[in-house]
Amino acid sequence: MSCLEKTTRSAVVVVVDRLGTGFLGPYGNTWLETPFWNEMADQSVLFEQAITDSPDLDRIYRSYWQGVHAAAVESTCESLALRLQSAGVATHLVTDEQLVADRASTTGFQKRKMLDHSMVTRSASKVEESQLVQLVMTSLETARSMETGGLLWVHSRGMDGPWDAPIWMRNQFAEEDDPEPPGFVEPPDRVVSPDIDPDELLGVVHAYAGQVALLDECMNALFEELAIHPWFKDTLIVLTSPRGFPLGEHGRLGPCDSALFEELIHVPYLMRLPDGAGVANRVHKFIQPADLYSTLLDWFNAGDLPSTTAAGRSLLPARQDRWPTSRDWAFALTGNQRVLRTSIWSARISDDNSTAELFVKPDDRWEVNDVALRCPEVVEVVDDLAQDCQKWLSNNDHSLPPSLGELAGPV
């Protein structure tokens, strides 16, 4: 690829925090209309098994922008923004999340816009007054300044920020016999008892759905406007989320103790290529946040990809032959727990091995039926493998990854 070609390509990455797969049509939701996401899925490669590597946003962004797993002790990779700058690619960030803005500043993003919001205490009276619309408008202002394209990275606090969609957007989901949804705007964040009133949970679900409906409308407006720019025809689009939002599953409403269950670690991931490659494909290989680093380097032809097999891998269809082996597992960790996912098992294990939970995949999507007591031999093997995976990722190893063999199942 010539130097001219690599600098005229563009990419738009939209990251929406706390967006769960269970509320999007392409991932099986049937009661909440998400026309933008449905249409985008028809034009994209949809990754069924995108698993975040940590519930900690700072760690996730290290994975996005430095190409290592959250378990890695350190990254020897140059930051994404500096790699792209060396290749002649302009980098732009728009965000309403201070942590992301700070990390962008230290990792070399050339142009950054941080939305400074005052305290929100009530729902917006109309869609145009919501914070998400303000982020979209700022993103479009930035896009207008990108005469030759480049990388536009948009990070929204999403459902980690105030739930300020107009109240009618949550009320529309309540049936005639349902209680009226609550009017709060601060996201819930607490452990709930098993005997919590189901109507209370239903109200929170309707409030969350209202935010997703607002997001769908805003994303549609964003990409309709982006499409008018000359550089957009050569643009790679990635839509994802760093982590989900528990809505009463496993006794949590909101982040709480960051318990690594499906509703928190399974995230949406769509990638649309301008030439239509892979359109409407559903990929079942596991992917993790560091893959975005390699994918963008590959897209912009910004030098060699990371050589370590523990690093992220390009997801571009033409580059899959570079993968040293199929990724048949995904690993996530936080301060006191770790999860190993394969196509047939999900094991959640505490660091001191005092607790272990085992779920059958893909049948038990929402991890309701813990079979650890019935399969102690599987728990023992998976625990050993999880420790091996963590050590391998911690060292950002160049050797082949631990093999899960029959535990992985067909990929």
Structure description:
This protein is an alpha/beta fold and 411 residues long. The chain folds into two domains: 3-315, Alkaline Phosphatase, subunit A, CATH 3.40.720.10; 330-407, Arylsulfatase, C-terminal domain (2-Layer Sandwich). It is built from eleven helices and 15 strands. It has helices at 3-8, 35-42, 57-66, 80-86, 98-107, 131-144, 167-171, 198-226, 262-265, 290-299, 376-394; strands at 10-16, 45-51, 91-95, 111-114, 151-156, 190-191, 235-240, 252-253, 266-267, 269-272, 282-287, 330-334, 337-341, 345-350, 356-360. Strands 1, 2, 3, 4, 5, 7, 9, 10 and 11 form a nine-stranded mixed β-sheet that branches. Strands 12-13-14-15 form a four-stranded antiparallel β-sheet, covered by helices on one side. Strands 6-8 form a two-stranded antiparallel sheet. A hairpin with a 3-residue loop joins strand 13 and strand 14 (345-350). Helix 3 (57-66) runs parallel beside helix 5 (98-107).
Q: Please identify the top-level CATH class of the largest domain.
A: Alpha Beta
Q: How far apart lie the N and C ends?
A: 32 Å
Helical percentage: 25-40%
Tell me the major beta sheet. Answer: 9 strands, mixed
Element order, helices and strands? HEHEHHEHEHEHEHEEHEEEHEEEEH
According to CATH, the fold-level topology of the largest domain is Alkaline Phosphatase, subunit A
- Radius of gyration using CA atoms only: 21 Å
Total beta strands = 15
Per the principal axes of the C-alpha atoms, what is the gross shape?
A: globular
Structural class, by secondary structure, is: alpha/beta
Q: Which CATH-level-2 architecture of the largest domain?
A: 3-Layer(aba) Sandwich
